[in-house]
Each structure stands twice: as C-alpha cells, then as structure tokens.
Amino acid sequence: MASEAPSRARRKPGLAVPHRMRWPLGYTAAALLVFLAYYYWIPNLGPDGQTFFRNWLPLTSVNEALVWVICALGLNIVVGYAGLLDLGFVAFWALGGYTAGWLMSSFFYQVNVHIFGGSLGTVPGIHVSFWLVLLVAGAFCALWGVIIGAPTLRLKSDYLALVTLGFGEIIPQVFTNGDDIGGFNLTNGTKGITPVDPIGVGSTKLGPFDLVWKYLIFVGIAAVVVFISLRLREGRLGRAWLAIREDELAASMMGVPLMRTKLSAYAVGAVAGGLAGVAFATHVGGVLPDRFNFSISITLLAMVVLGGMGNVWGVMLGALVLAWVNSTGLPQFGTSFNEQFGTDINFPSYNYLLFGGILVLMMLFRREGILPESRTRLVLHEPSRTDMESLHADMEAPAPELDEPLQTVVSDASEETAVAEGPEKTVVADGLGEKA
Fold first, then answer.
1. How many CB atoms lie within 10 A of CB 47?
2. Which of 57, 91, 105, 379 yields a CA-CA distance of 20 to 30 A from 405?
3. Is pLDDT above 60 for 113?
4. How confident is the model at residue 60 (pLDDT cuts 50, 70, 90)?
C-alpha cells in the first residue's frame, strides 16, 4: 500500500494545459470553428438554416465585430492598462482608415505609384499592398498618438477626458472639410474616398464577397494585437502602466517616468486603432467621414467597461457582444417583434438607451465587468471606510492582520534589549521583581 501512494502522486494528466495558454487556445479553437462553420457547414444547410444565419449571424457582422475588437483592444491599453480616460479614440480609427484611402486607391490620380498593390499597373493613383499599409498606418497613428498626447497628458481625470474629447471632434471635422485646404483636396470632403483596393494574398485579390477569407485576416490581426497586449502587460512597460493606473504619485516616487510611459500607452493604443481603421476601410470598401463620429468613442469605451477594463479577453467579449447587438441583434429582434405583434417600433433607435441601461446596471452590481482583471476585482471589492462603519467596525482599533506581526516585533525588540544589557541587568531586574 505504501508503494502505491507514491505512484499515485506521480500521476499527471496527459493533456495538462498551462493556465496562461487556455484563453489563447480557446480563441484559436473558436476562430477555427467559426471558419469551418461558414466555409463548410452553413453553405450545406437547408433554406431555413441558411436564412437563420443570414438574418441573425451574417459573416459581414462577424467581420465588423472583429474590427471593433481590434480597436477596443487598443483603447484597453490606454484606459485599462494606464488608467487614462480617452473620449476621442475614434480619431485614430479615422487616421488609419484615411491612410488606407490615400495609399490604396486612385484618389491621388496625379501620380502613379504601385508597390505590390491590388490593382493593375496602368491605374493611376497610389496603390500599396494591404500588408504594407497596415505597417504604415500603425506607424502614422503612433506618431499622431505622441503628437496628441504630448500637450494633453500633463492633465488628469476630467480635464484629460475633455481634451481628448476635443481632439476626437477636431480630427473627423478636418476630414469632413478637407476637400479644400489651400486649394488642395486632401480628403474629398463628405464624399469620402471610394473605392479602396482589395486585399491581395499572393496573386489572389479578395473581392467584396470573399468574406470567409477576410474573416481569417481580421482574426489574424486581432490575434497580433492580443499578443502584443499580453506581452507588453507582462513586461516592464506594462508594470509601469499598471503602477500609474493604481497610484500615479507612488509610481513617480518609485522612478517611473510618467510622461514617457503615458506617451507610450497612447502610441501603442493608437497603433491598434490604425490597424482597425485599415481593416474597416477594406471591409466597407472605402472611407467616409460620417463613419467616425463621437458615438464610436463612447461605444468603444462601453465595450471596455462592459467586458472588464485591463482584461484582454473580457474586452474582446464586450466588443463582440455590443458590436453584434448594435449591427444585427437589435435590428433583427425589432423585425421579428414587429412581425409577430403587428407593431412598428424602431428598435435600433433605442440602442443607446439599451447600452446606457446596461452600463448603469453594471456599475451598480458588477463594476469590474463581465470578465474582470484579478487586480481590478480585488480593488473594487475592497470594503471602504463607510462600509466598515456601517458594519459597526471599530475604526480606532488596529487592523487584525497587523496584530500578530506587531507583537512579534515588540517581543523580538525586548529580547534584543535584554541580551544587550547583559546578565547583570537581568539579575537586578529579577531582584527588583522579587523585592516588589
């Protein structure tokens, strides 16, 4: 029997998965299942099954939700990691989209530049490969993140939110009225830039109906952003962001360079916004200035708060849920409801009422989000002084967890004093004690 116990202790599960790899493997498995479902299974369903997926879960909505995921992950770096409230993140989405419009279309017809582009060499304009445009848009948005952040990140809390809100309103207005800047047409005004070149994969050009392959590309971009977010969070820069989020003064006293660290958060978050802008431009086939309004910044912030600030996987879940509800779930529910009861209610017009109600309920009952970060959950569930007083706790008494260490320190100090004074002092003390 004794020999059997060690053998049982040595037994290990054959497919043990490290904890840190469970979510990435789950993301990969879910992405592959969705791809196989839309590529093999759903096209072979009957008319009723295809109608259900076409109405409630079209692949177009899935691809658009992935674009929201990419952008929300960038905002999570700014808000969830560094604790900087940003109400103008849509500016980086717009900058990325217009970068794709400038470098992947015939808008600048005065020149003829082709760098692995998705169009014929005889077509005028600037036509750069989609993959190169991703890099250019990321670098361009990072530069603008530094430019916007340098004069504003000296502010805090509400003042920072107001300034970022101002930049979020200025940049879309520049694109809206940029058709005549000193006689030069930079953005084509309200008409936007359409169409943009298709995505090129080798010699194949993905058309507007190649949604399955675009899905794989968007999943890959989101995976890259997730990988960067997780690696940065575990590194020195990520720990500096978390320190600033928890206590900016304490972080500065510990040697964290506040300005440089905040600028890096803005720059990295802007890169994700630029990637989302390029993906969105290829998804809709162009860039229009009315697609980049203030409501997008609020929706992105709602996705981060709903999913769980600081938690990459929670933010992804919040972005997927809100994006699907906004684009497909609420309109389709309204259609079904009106057909069933003979009403004529415009349910999509109440989307912000729904989002606002959800946020109010979340703030009341689950402030940390659906999938919260462990550190944020502990901080938000820590009882405040008012809560402890309501439970009739004695606030003047020392904390129970400090009693034992305090007694140990006092006893150790007494022993050291007795040893330092020597045996004679001890005898005198004992004698005094006996006389007493």
1. 7
2. 379
3. yes
4. very high
Contacts of 379 (CB under 8 A, 6+ apart): 246
31 near 23, Cβ under 8 Å?
A: no
Question: CA-CA distance, 275 to 241, in Å (whole number)?
Answer: 22
- Beta carbons within 10 angstroms of residue 274's beta carbon: 34
Rounded Cα gap, residues 393 and 106, in angstroms: 71
Residues in Cβ contact with 276 at an 8 Å cutoff, skipping those fewer than 6 apart? 67, 68, 70, 71, 74, 93, 96
Q: How many Å apart are CA 200 and CA 206, to the nearest integer?
A: 6
- Reported as a pLDDT band with limits 50, 70 and 90, residue 209 is confident
Q: What is the CA radius of gyration of the chain?
A: 29
| Residues 6 or more apart in contact with residue 141 via CB below 8 angstroms | 92, 95, 96, 99, 270, 271, 273, 274, 277
CB 200 within 8 A of CB 129: yes
Distance CA 318, CA 222 (A): 14
Can you tell me the mean pLDDT for 133-138?
A: 95
Element (H, E) at 199: strand 199-201
SS3 264: helix
Name the average pLDDT for the chain: 82
Q: What does the alpha-carbon distance between residue 261 and residue 146 come to, in Å, rounded to a whole number?
A: 11
